[in-house]
Specification:
This protein is of the alpha/beta class and 413 residues long. The chain has two domains: 17-348, Alpha-Beta Barrel (TIM Barrel), CATH 3.20.20.70; 356-413, no CATH class. 36% of the residues lie in helices and 12% in strands. The protein has 13 helices and 14 strands. The chain has helices at residues 47-57, 90-101, 149-169, 183-188, 203-206, 208-221, 243-256, 289-296, 312-320, 331-335, 339-345, 365-384, 394-411, and strands spanning 17-18, 24-25, 29-31, 63-65, 69-70, 82-83, 106-112, 127-128, 145-146, 173-178, 226-232, 260-264, 303-306, 326-329. The protein has an eight-stranded parallel β-barrel, surrounded by six helices. A two-stranded antiparallel sheet has the order 1-2. It has a two-stranded parallel ribbon with strand order 8-9. Strand 11 (226-232), helix 7 and strand 12 form a beta-alpha-beta unit. Helix 1 packs across helix 12. The protein is globular and about 55 Å long. The termini are far apart.
Length: 413
Amino acid sequence: MPPKNPAPRTVTAGSPLTLPCGAVLPNRIAKAAMSEQLAAIDGSPSPRLTRLYSAWGRGGAGLLVTGNVMIDRRAYVEPRNVTLEDDRHLEAVGNWARAGSRAGAVMVMQINHPGRVAVGPLHRRPVGPSALRPQALGFNLRTPRALSLDDIADLRRRYARTAELAVTAGFSGIQVHAAHGYLLSQFLSPVANQRDDRYGGSPENRRRLLLEVVTDVRDAIGPDAVVSVKLNSADFQHGGLDETESLAVALALEQAGIDLLEISGGNYEAPAMTGVVQGSTRAREAYFLRYAETLRARTAMPLMLTGGVRTLDFINDVLARGSVDVIGLGRPFAVRPAIAADLLTGAGEPQVLPTAPQIPLPAATPINSYLQLAWHAANFRRIAAGKQVRAPGVVRTLAAAGTTVTARALTQF
C-alpha cells in the first residue's frame, strides 16, 4: 500500500504542466518567441518557416511560442513577419501549426501590433497611444498618429480575429505580446501614453486596453484554448512602467483568467530582454528572476521566465522551488534546435547552454545585440534547410547582419 502522506514529487524540467484551460505541456522547457522573418512576400507562413518549426517540434520542447504574427498588414515589426488578418492563408497556417505540434509540443501563436515602432511600410505613418516619438535611434524619425477611440475598437477586433483564426487553423492558443515597447506595452507606459481619456492617465486606465484585448481574445477562442500574455517586469527607462505597476498589471491579468504569464523586460530604448540592461539576479543568470519571485509570492498563476537562463542546474532549481512553472529559452534554440531534448536527457553537456557570438564592440552593446540577432536569423534559414548551424564567428555574423539589412531595405515598401 502507498504511504498515507507520500512525499511531494519534485518538479523538474521534465515534469508535465497542466494549464488552467486544460492544455498539458509535456515538459517545462519552452521555445520563447524569436522573430523568424520567414513569411512569404504575401505574409503567409512559408514552407521554410514550416520546416523550421518541424525541426523545433522534434527538438523536445514542451511549448513552442512563435515569433511575431501581425494583426494588421499595415504595420509590422520586421519585414517578412507572418500576417494573419483573414482566412486567405489558413491552410498554410494549419501546416505551420501541425509541423510544430506533431511530436507533442503545444503550439502557441504570438500576436502583436508594433504601434509606434513599426518598421514598415515606410510610406505609412505609425500609430501609438499618443503622438510621441520613441527615443530609440532609427525609430524616432516619424511622429506617430495618436489612435482614436474608433481605431482602438478596430484594434480590439483585430486581436480577437487573429486569435480566432490561429485556433481554427490548429494552434493550441495565442500569446498576446504586451512587452518590449510594442503597442500594448506602449499603452502601459507613462512615457508613451499621455492620453487624457479612459485609456490614459491612471494606471488602471493605461492597462485597460490590454485587459480588454485579453477578454476579447478569450471570448473569441473559448475556455479550452491557451491565452498567454508576455509582460515587461519593467521598461528599464526613466518614467516608464516600473516593477510596482507591472505587478499590479500581472495580478489584474490573473483575475482576467489568463493561462500563462511570460515575464520579460525592456524595449527598443532599453533592451533588457537582450541582456544589455541586467539586474543583480543570481550569478547574472535569468535577468528577471527577482521579479518572478516577488510575483510568485502573490499569485498561483502559471509563470514563464525567459531571458538569460543558461544552465540545467539553474532550471531545475527554480522549478523545484516553485519560483516559476516554465522556463523559456530563445537564442539557444537558434544554435541547437534540439536543445530541449539534450537538456531533458542530460546529453550535450557541458551544462552551459550555447549563446550567440560576442562581437568585439564593447562601446556599442545595442549594435552587438543586433548583430547577434542577425546571426541567429541566418541560423533559422540553415535549420529550415536541414543544414548544420555554423560556429559563431565575427565574419559570419557581420555577413548575416548585412543580409538582414539588405532584406529590410528591399521589403520596406
